[in-house]
Amino acid sequence: MSHLRVAGQAGDEGFTPSTDRFGTALSDIVRCRACGHMQLERFPADAVLAEAYGDAASADYIGEEAGQRATARAVLDRLECHVARGTLLDLGSWVGFLLVEARDRGWDVVGVEPSEFASAYARDHLGLDVRTADLRTADLDGRRFDAVVLGDVIEHLPRPGEALDRIATLLAPGGAICLMVPDAGSRLARAMGARWWSVIPTHVQYFTRASLRTLLARHGYEVLDVATHPKAFTVRYYLSRIEGYSAPAGRALVRGAERVGVADRMWAPDFRDRMLVIARGPARN
User: Fold this and answer.
1) H helices of the chain, where?
2) Whose CA is closest to 181, among 255, 253, 92, 105?
3) What's the CA gap between 223 and 214, in Å, rounded?
4) Whole-angstrom distance, CA of residue 183 vs CA of residue 193
5) How far apart, in Å, are the Cα atoms of 58 and each of 12, 69, 270?
6) Residues 53-65 pLDDT 10s
7) DSSP 3-state helix, strand, coil percentages of the chain (rounded to 5)?
8) pTM over 0.85
9) Distance between CA 94 and CA 114 in Å, rounded?
10) Residue 220 CA from chain centroid, whole number
11) Which of 19, 85, 102, 10 is nearest to 49 (CA)?
12) Mean pLDDT, the chain, as a whole number?
């Protein structure tokens, strides 16, 4: 059924992770009465998405490396409760900070990232094996992985079930998938409605905990762990995001944080509107 009237354009920022076009999607959003899952009423063409993600470029997250790496360490801590360190594939690895943290802990890592800018940064500055491709086109040399991570990825895919089926062929026996994704069923998301900061042009799916569990089960995955997933950024970064709602207010808050000397402090508030889900891959004969 029709849920949110939010159709608009991606704007000058394109498909960068740090877009602040809150309350805008590439089509209106519809909602399933049965499970609460939401998605775009009309999906963009695959070729349009591929070009947009290939062209995506932003240094915003590079400037937030310390927080990105702290967030990655928290993800790996959780993942390693279920999977022994071995081979790890990060799909949608952006500039590669999770891969660096995993490599430093002893994982054998590979990344896949469609952005020319981000994948080149990961290779040239961090010395990572990151392939410029997407899940459908990536050549992974027939390898199998003990863990596959999708951080803020599955909500970008028009056909997430096909992605899970492809990932199942990449998992080693007993391997697990780790997804970090906005929680459209959270109290905050429901209260904010169309103004929720995860209603943005890059998202085509809006999962709830229930709908993500349903999708995983339908494709043979066994959910092992579900938790909230706060992200660490500087106070400056978080306050600057308010410019997506009011540019003067966001700038004023950043100036205030600078005056009292807290703008560059690390902050990881848990708004409970993001989830981390770990699931065992399908059993294979």
Assistant:
1) 46-55, 65-79, 97-104, 116-126, 160-170, 187-192, 209-218, 235-240, 247-259
2) 92
3) 10
4) 12
5) 12, 17, 25
6) 999 988 889 999 9
7) 35, 20, 40
8) yes
9) 8
10) 22
11) 10
12) 95
For tokens 């998202």, name the residue: 203
**Amino acid making up residue 66:** A
Q: CA 138, CA 186: separation in Å to the nearest integer? A: 33
Give which of 93, 111, 75 is closest to 225, Cα–Cα: 75
Cβ atoms of 181 and 154 closer than 8 Å: yes
Q: Are 201 and 26 in contact (CB under 8 A)?
A: yes
In tens, the pLDDT along 141-163 reads 888 999 999 999 999 999 999 99
DSSP 166-178: HHHHHEEEEEEEE
CA atoms of 231 and 265, how far apart (whole Å): 14
Sheet strands side by side (includes 29-31): 2-4, 29-31, 38-40, 205-206
CA distances from 254 to 59, 67, 73, 93, 264 (A): 19, 18, 27, 29, 10
Q: Report yes or no: 91 and 130 within 8 Å, Cβ to Cβ.
A: no
Using CA atoms, how far apart are residues 229 and 186, in angstroms rounded to an integer? Answer: 12
Structural tokens at position 133: 């491709």
Strands 130-132 and 205-206: unpaired
Token reading at 186: 């959270």
Spatial distance between the Cα atoms of 180 and 74, rounded to a whole number of angstroms: 12
Three-state DSSP at 162 gives: helix
- Structure tokens, 268: 């990881």
* Distance, CA of 193 to CA of 196 (rounded, Å): 6
Question: Residue 105: is its pLDDT beyond 70?
Answer: yes
What tokens were used for 123? 């290779």
